[in-house]
Amino acid sequence: MAGPMSIPDAIEVFVHAFCQGKSQTYPYVPTFVDGIWVMRDTPDRKNPRKIEVITTGLESNEVAARLSTMDIGWHFLCEIHPPEADFDGIRQAYKELGYKAVSTEWLFFHDLSEIPVFDCNPAVRLVEDQAMMDSIPMRGLQRRKLRPGTRHYSVWDGEQDFGWVYSVPVGENAWVSDLHVHEDQRSKGYGKALMSRLLRDDRELGIKNSVLLASSAGARIYPTLGYQQIGVLQMFCPVKRS
Known about the structure:
alpha+beta; 11 strands; globular; 25% helix; 2 domains
């Protein structure tokens, strides 16, 4: 069995999948500049969305110095570090550089060697085309569209939908996007069943690793599916808008 996926490799999967999702409305492009990932709209957009920066393995003052040469303006900065790193020390270092903490997520990967089987009723289905997507009785939501280059799994019956998730291939790996189960249907096994089907299909299609970011709740659930935590993401933004 291969060793754990590296944080830089997992970040590359995240960056390309994230930009692919945001590019559904307008091109959102990743570039790797001086050891830092920078994601932003192409220059021709009149009202650009916020720039997002991903970094790992660099000291906070070095990140700030490199960003100052890029002239990127106000941005979100995601610092991803190993679980054993000094969480509070990293947060304090960015605070002293004029950043404030926004959120925390946990970075996981799955090597697909062992995938537990979870089923549910109604069963998880692969949404094969837009007509099938349009047939799903969604509750109070705008109609979803199939995203090119992704696989969409959902659970529904003749009256309502229960939840869904996307697998986004990135080279020989894949990113898990938008796992959602309606609040009144949680703790009934739908999330695990969706993920189990997604992972088994990933493996059958030759995917090597599945990568995702989890909330604090997800960080407790994903290990039961075989995911291993490899990193912690701390998101910051400059206190001053200038």
